[in-house]
Design goal:
335 residues; F-box_BR-signaling; mainly beta; five-stranded mixed beta sheet; 2 helices; KIB1-4_b-propeller
Length: 335
């Protein structure tokens, strides 16, 4: 809206349909979107104001490894009916759902042709890296599983601008750091001692705030709506922890996560977007000391009612949801 004399005029952006039709957002950084189509799995960086687009290699170029080998199953007429994982026989997804079930998030170092993108993908939530100029993705750093049936799943990645390093956190709160080429890997924090006590409904996000490494733990529960076999995903709890490294850097195991309830006037934003913070004096429309969140369930398909968007006020220990559970499903999920 802008004011011309005494008249309010509404200026409409030109249509984005030609750029985003059939695509879904799997990330965002500083106003740019990371969109992904359903057929070719071709990620694109997209600026919705300038309409600039930068393409990344197709996610089909991620090389197979010891944890995954995705193969298409063709129908009699030659089209792809579904995909399956030869190393996880329980996984099979129809061609329409494969993108939404198998890929979790794409994080960028910068919005230009020279940056690095990191994708979290697969049943075991592995990492792969690529630059726009690359022909294919390369495998990222890995952590060994606890045992044959338990993977150390990566759940969020954060890019540290000053250090020019990526930080990745797992379901069991282990943290790895690595450079723009996936090299110079260091383990910042070990996993929690007893992974079996970790709540499977929790997911972790990672960020830096005032120089401190921060973990946001979000509990999301699935509720059976018993109507049209639909399910409702709802955030039920959010906790914030600050990482306190060991006094001796060689003793990573004595590091710990300390619960905090004060973000120093900042608020954190989590979801499919890259996790970031804003101070309420910089963005006066936001509430301080809150966690703003959008839909980011473990399984996200059109059979799930996606209305899980709102904020959690750390000072008052309360939620404010922006969408009613009986409202129309918010598909594809917001960022």
């Amino acid at each position: 809206m802008k004011k011309e004399g005494d008249v309010d005029c509404c200026i409409r952006f030109s249509s984005l349909d030609s750029h985003i039709f059939g695509r879904r957002c799997f990330g965002s950084k500083d106003g740019w979107l990371v969109t992904l189509d359903q057929t070719d799995l071709q990620p694109r960086l997209f600026n919705p104001l300038t309409k600039t687009e930068i393409s990344l290699p197709s996610l089909f170029t991620i090389p197979e490894d010891q944890w995954h080998r995705i193969k298409p199953q063709y129908g009699l007429d030659g089209h792809i009916e579904f995909y399956y994982d030869e190393k996880h026989r329980s996984f099979a997804a129809d061609a329409e759902s494969f993108r939404d079930l198998y890929f979790h998030k794409i994080v960028l170092s910068s919005n230009d042709p020279f940056g690095t993108a990191v994708v979290v993908y697969g049943l075991s939530k592995l990492l792969a890296l690529a630059k726009p100029s690359d022909n294919a993705w390369v495998l990222g750093p890995q952590l060994p599983p606890y045992h044959i049936d338990q993977f150390e799943e990566f759940e969020d990645v954060y890019f540290h601008e000053e250090e020019q390093m990526f930080y990745a956190i797992t379901h069991f709160s282990a943290v790895l750091a690595f450079d723009l080429d996936g090299k110079n890997v260091k383990q910042v924090c070990q996993a929690i001692q007893d992974p079996l006590t970790t709540n499977s409904s929790c997911r972790n996000y990672i960020a830096f705030l005032s120089g401190n490494l921060i973990k946001i733990t979000r509990e999301i529960h699935c509720i059976d709506m018993t109507v049209d076999e639909k399910y409702l995903q709802k955030t039920t709890n959010i906790s914030i922890f600050k990482f306190v490294p060991a006094m001796d850097a060689s003793y990573c195991s004595s590091s710990q996560w300390i619960s905090i309830r004060d973000l120093g006037g900042c608020s954190l934003f989590v979801g499919y977007n890259q996790t970031f913070s804003l101070h309420h004096t910089v963005a006066p429309g936001i509430k301080p000391n809150c966690i703003y969140f959008t839909d980011h369930a473990e399984v996200t398909t059109q059979d799930v009612i996606t209305c899980d968007a709102g904020l959690f006020d750390l000072h008052n220990d309360c939620f404010q949801f922006f969408l009613d559970s009986d409202s129309q499903s918010n598909w594809p999920p917001s960022i």
